[in-house]
Amino acid sequence: MEKIKMNTPIVEMDGDEMTRVIWKDIKEKLLEPYIDLNIDYYDLSIENRNETDDEVTLESAKAVEKHKVGVKCATITANEDRVEEFNLKRIYPSPNATIRAYLDGVMFREPVVFSCLDILVPTWKKPIAIARHSFGDIYVSKSFDVKKGETLKVSIDGKEKYEYSPDYDAIFLTQYNKVESIKYFAKESFEYAISKKMNLIFSTKDTVVPGYDSVFKEIFNKTYENYKDEFEKLGIEYNYYLVDNAIAQIMKSEGNILWALKNYEGDIMSDLISAVYGSLSLMESAIIGNGTYLYEAAHGTVTAHYRRYQKGEITSTNSVALIFTWASGLEKRGELDSNKELHDFGVKLKQAVRETIENGFITGDLIKSYNKENYTKVNYLEFIEKVNEYLKKRLN
Ligand code: NAP
Ligand code: MG
């Protein structure tokens, strides 16, 4: 078979620990034999971030802006322990935060759903994905102590808008968002729903925060007008609900919903959704912004498995989300470049992963939720080998 060609590069951000090990195997065993990979490579390992004083992180984000499509391996977020472990010059910020801030995108998180794996909410037969606005609100907030008898004043260009003088010791919070960013969040949410043929729900608490949250609500409702025809054509729906009502609606649903949420609710609900679908290793994640697409797995570097790997164990770490990361990246690259062969390769790679699991070849983390009679527990290498077998059949 002749290898698939790539005209434009995909940005590759390499990472740390167990995911770095598996990442390399995925590339060598599932991609390189079939594709003439065209890659703009950035090593985001903690060692190289330290070496480059973290400049490599920003460079990699700029590369995604340039080439439009990237794939990211999981990376260590530094803390005191890691400073000691790797003899770091300082505590570097989370690479994800740096990249997200630069790309100013919307974060999407979506589970890979299998009928042979039980989930905590049995009625959810199809994926529930989260679109999280990843800018602003309490993530850019400032707190002020206001002591009994003190007065806090809010003014705009000297014009007083609000005054607060409590007769108790109090704590006061300010937060903001950018109107442009909210518009963008809405647009990307509608487009993602269309691309996945999912119903879209947007929710805030505009009854309690009428000024602030109404802006979000109105922007979403207005944006919907641009997409109404397409939604109707595809037979999907858009609904706005108060956030508590949204929870009730979603619990009763069978899935196939993209749930768009403000920054804080999105942060929390994306973890809740991951928990329901069983394993973090089955969660895909994407940052989509200004025509750029960056894919990654939702999980971290799986340090606990890496410690055992370092002692010589071939762990049963699940590589589904990492393989899907590459597959989605190649699919998107193919789509943007009208490179059908490359796009279809991504689709087939995902199908091969599905076949592997549906035929009972599963990693340890999936055993508890597996609901068919027979399964074979495989280690991470055996899993990739199995995927490769199914992939070969599909490519022939
Ligand atoms: P983690 O890497 O997600 O792993 C937590 C636990 O979840 C693992 O010990 C394992 O449980 C299970 N798990 C996660 N992914 C799995 C997989 N693919 N296959 C099988 N089991 C899996 O979280 P962490 O241990 O809290 O964080 C490790 C490092 O990752 C930290 O340095 C953190 O900063 C970083 N991190 C990076 C990202 C990112 O780059 N996007 C995200 C989160 C965390 P068992 O041990 O019970 O098998
Ligand atoms: Mg969180």
Summarize this structure briefly.
The protein is α/β, with parallel strands linked by helices and 396 residues long.
Coarse morphology: globular
What is the beta-strand fraction? 15-25%
Distance between the amino and carboxyl termini = 8 Å
Could you tell me which ligands this complex binds, including any ions or cofactors?
NADP nicotinamide-adenine-dinucleotide phosphate, magnesium ion
The CATH C-level class name of the largest domain? Alpha Beta
Number of domains: 3
| Rg | 23 Å
The helix fraction, in percent, is: 40-55%
Order of helix and strand elements from N to C terminus: EHEHHEHHEEEEEEHEHEHEHEEHHHEEH
- The CATH superfamily of the largest domain is known as Isopropylmalate Dehydrogenase
The number of strands is: 16
Task: Give the averaged pLDDT, no decimals.
Answer: 95
Walk across the major sheet and give the strand order: 2-1-3-14-13-4-5-12-10-11
Low-confidence stretches are none
Explain this structure.
The protein is built from 13 helices and 16 strands. The protein has 396 residues and is α/β, with parallel strands linked by helices. The chain has helices spanning 17-31, 46-51, 55-67, 80-86, 95-103, 179-196, 210-234, 243-252, 263-276, 303-310, 320-336, 340-358, 380-395; strands at 10-14, 39-43, 69-72, 106-111, 128-133, 137-146, 152-156, 159-164, 170-176, 199-204, 238-242, 257-261, 283-289, 292-297, 361-362, 376-377. A ten-stranded mixed β-sheet has the order 2-1-3-14-13-4-5-12-10-11, sandwiched between helices. It has a two-stranded antiparallel sheet with strand order 6-9. The model has no long low-confidence stretch (mean pLDDT 95). The N and C termini lie close together (8 Å). It is 45% helix and 22% strand. A hairpin with a 2-residue loop joins β7 (152-156) and β8. The protein has three domains: 1-112 and 279-396, Isopropylmalate Dehydrogenase (3-Layer(aba) Sandwich), CATH 3.40.718; 120-132 and 178-276; 137-176, no CATH class. Bound molecules: NADP nicotinamide-adenine-dinucleotide phosphate (NAP) and magnesium ion. It comes from Peptoniphilus ovalis. Its EC number is 1.1.1.42.
